[in-house]
Write a structure and sequence with these properties.
mainly alpha; 0% strand; 22 helices; 71% helix; single chain; elongated
């Protein structure tokens, strides 16, 4: 049903484009052809009638012209004008008849032929003749069309798992046309590409399409959907799941009680009571949590006291980490500052951990970039993300998209603590 609705949306927008007041080929380069005087005069009278929206009179003049046709130019001009009238009067039978004549004309170019096949495909689609629509769309592609909507339309007619790879390739060709022309790719094209890539199990493409979509269309809904997709891909990595929830929070894409609850569950699984406290406070401030969820109350129990204890201990731990032989203590302290939301304090400790070594360097660089992104240092964040080249590179690229759009975070001290729920 979702696939069918998506197809209807694509074809509905296409049909609206085809039924306006401008003939299909009005934007094409004028052709050079000869026209018989009687045909020219009758067609000119028909065009005057069309401008006055007197379509019965226009049709009568075109019937006169039809009786005087002698040359290929006569047939082309007559059929073009007949198509104009048919488009304006929504007469699909007349549209098809005119298109058939135009497709047989030796005067039209391959590009024009492709557009006529596309027009006829739209008519076939809305007449429920999907096989004919597919054939005409493929004919348009075979003639070298540069119209990306033709590729999208054919992809929308894919049926069954066996056609997913072909459909994805069609969407990618449409996207490439836009990208080459430096034209933004419509968000529904990205969504369609992601769908086919997911069906094919091509996770690298799922993440790449999602990141590209967010770079062009960074809406709350898009952030949330892409992060859900990424969490499915990185489900086996609990640290990745945590950092993706942190990104959803940073992007303002926690949209309801279940989002805050699921984020708190992950933080609980990583034993981060300070982060749970921050999540719950934020949810209450956003009117997403009303205190009625018993699971959230349980997750939040004791977190304020734990967060206060952590805040008191961290300065001393951070100082000790500087003189430690390895970076392990610095990384642990940086992670705790991250959990508290004190990103400015976390960043230098991640640097210390990386410099001293004996830590997961990829994770440390990722979180250094995260901390810098949350403080608004996009350049520094991106430099750190560029060093993440292993399994978490996709997460780093997603955070990089965020870094290019972010404003500095509000200091955590601005958030008043709440009482424990005991």
């Amino acid at each position: 049903m979702v696939q069918k609705l998506a197809a209807l949306a694509i074809w509905g927008s296409v049909l609206a484009m085809s039924s306006g007041s401008v003939p299909l080929m009005a934007q094409s380069t004028p052709l050079q052809y000869s026209v018989s005087p009687d045909v020219r005069e009758a067609v000119q009278q028909a065009q005057t009638a069309i401008a006055q929206r007197n379509f019965p009179a226009a049709s009568a003049y075109l019937n006169q012209a039809s009786a005087a046709v002698q040359t290929d130019g006569d047939r082309y001009l007559l059929a073009s004008t007949q198509l104009d009238v048919a488009n304006r009067t929504f007469n699909t039978a007349a549209q098809v008849a005119a298109i058939n004549i135009l497709l047989s004309s030796p005067l039209i170019t391959a590009a024009q032929s492709a557009e006529y096949y596309y027009h006829r495909a739209r008519i076939s689609y809305h007449g429920q003749n999907l096989d004919a629509a597919r054939a005409d769309l493929q004919a348009a592609i075979d003639r070298g069309t540069a119209n990306p909507r033709i590729f999208i339309a054919l992809a929308s007619l894919a049926s069954g798992p066996s056609q997913n790879a072909t459909a994805l390739a069609l969407v990618e060709r449409a996207m490439a046309i836009h990208e080459t022309a430096a034209v933004p790719v419509p968000v529904n094209w990205y969504r369609r590409a992601i769908h086919f890539a997911q069906e094919l199990g091509e996770n690298a493409k799922v993440t790449a399409f999602g990141q590209a979509m967010l770079a062009e269309h960074p809406s709350q809904r898009n952030w949330r959907d892409v992060l859900i997709q990424h969490r499915e891909i990185y489900a086996a990595d609990p640290e990745a799941a945590l950092d993706l929830w942190r990104l959803q929070d940073a992007a303002g894409a926690l949209t309801g009680e279940f989002d805050y609850r699921d984020y708190a569950r992950v933080a609980h699984g990583r034993t981060l009571p300070a982060e749970i406290e921050r999540i719950v406070q934020a949810g209450r401030a956003a009117n997403m949590l009303d205190g009625g969820n018993s699971e959230i109350a349980t997750l939040d129990r004791g977190t304020t006291r734990a967060a206060q204890s952590l805040r008191s201990a961290l300065p001393g731990r951070a100082q000790s980490a500087i003189s430690a032989a390895t970076g392990a203590n610095a990384l642990a302290a940086a992670n705790d500052y991250m959990a508290l939301g004190d990103f400015a304090a976390a960043a230098p400790l991640y640097r210390t951990a990386i410099e001293k070594g004996s830590v997961d360097t990829e994770l440390a660089n990722l979180r250094l970039g995260m901390a810098l992104a949350r403080t608004g240092d996009a350049a520094g964040a991106n430099a750190a993300f560029d060093l993440v080249v292993g399994p978490r590179a996709g997460i780093a690229r997603l955070w990089r998209v965020y870094a290019s759009q972010v404003q500095p975070a509000v200091a955590p001290a601005a958030i008043a603590p709440t009482s424990d729920v005991q």
